[in-house]
Amino acid sequence: MNTNSPLAQVYRLFSSALAALLLTLSANLFAKPSPSDNSNIANNQEKLEVVSDGTGNDCLSDDCIESHRWHLGLALGVGHRTNPLVSARNVPLYVIPSIAYYGERFYFDNGDLGYTLQDNDRFAVNFTTFYNNDRGFFSRSDPSNIFAVSADSTFATNRDLSPVPEIEYESRRLSIFAGAEALWFSDYGTFSFTAGHDLLAIHHGSEVRAQWSRAWQYGNWSANLAAGFVWKSAEVISYYYGLRASEAMHFDNSNFNAKSGTNKNVRLSLSYRINQHWRLLAIGGYSDLANEIVASPIVIENHSKTVFVGGAYQF
Amino acid sequence: MVLLMPIFSWPALGQNQQSGANSELIEPELTVAEFAVMPKLCLQNGEQKLCQLSITLHWKIAKSAAICIRTDHDDIAQWCGQSKELGQRTLTVSTAKSIVFSLYQQASDVALARTELTLARVKQINKRRRFRHPWSLF
Prior knowledge:
heterodimer, A: mainly beta, Outer membrane phospholipase (ompla), Chain C, two-stranded antiparallel sheet, 44% strand, B: Immunoglobulin-like, 5-stranded mixed β-sheet, 50% strand
């Protein structure tokens, strides 16, 4: 990697921010909490207002959400998502929205629609719809790239310096999966299992996701670590990573017999709450692509990395 | 306008007397080691306008003395009486705002200690578990 490239600068920025966040986080681990750390009483001079969680659940701030109202947020910063396709630009990330609404049972959370059948201290079962982010490698209008800057971004990669011209890939359609998910909330984190089938009959494929995630909170600091697998059926891999006729001329080998495969993902997010609305945010993600995806002639990398550092505003 | 309907029922005390300040008879200032109200907090839900509860004031002073306890509400009469080093009073209040209790040496207008019964309104917020990470869009 060219050490002076914007990509290298982003990596250095993220590494520095991550190190600083981890350093401060570890310092906070051993710091004596102030008496007000756990206070849920807000003094408004005239009269105290005790905020009561109607459920009585003792949950971390990012694990719980006030129901029956919209929650809007914007994260502003710098980051990108690497693109594993041959001669394709990385996806820059400057603005990331966060949109959620949770009703009594219905919920909408960052593009996922769901209906909760069961939710107790240990388990939850939902009907859910979700989308995958494969289309994001082909189209900047994909929800996973929402608000990303234009293709003329300064976020060029080392591959942009190569003589290989950028390939105009045909756009792939956004596919939404409908299915069910089960979640188990254990002392060791949350385990979720989700299965869905192509709702819009675009490729007639399916996805199955298994994930573990855990959140930690120390005062104003919070961290969330997630790791999991995403199994994609052959139909999904064929639709997104199969070679289109207009793309075949760019490749010597156009043979691709798609099979089902499993991506492995890990994501770490750190945040520091400045006040009620603002927080600092650092997110890093790594997706190890299934061998069956890497076997596609249009895929040159066996992974995709996501980094983002910035500030987030919650309305 | 703040609704204020205090019901202030001091236990009957034979030695109760209204304070009559006389500058020539002021005793040396009394030391108060402790003056507190229990409970300190009265919680109201959204429907309750008045906070009604029984509270106990207790104090510890350096020596037996004639003291008075006043509040920041004009329509609550002060209580005065002879007190030993340790004293306490239990009373029932019904109020729509916090009450500050002040302890005075009877012959003085200088408050020696203060304590407050604070009213807190419970704001019910319905929460439920969030199934996605807030920044999971990408």
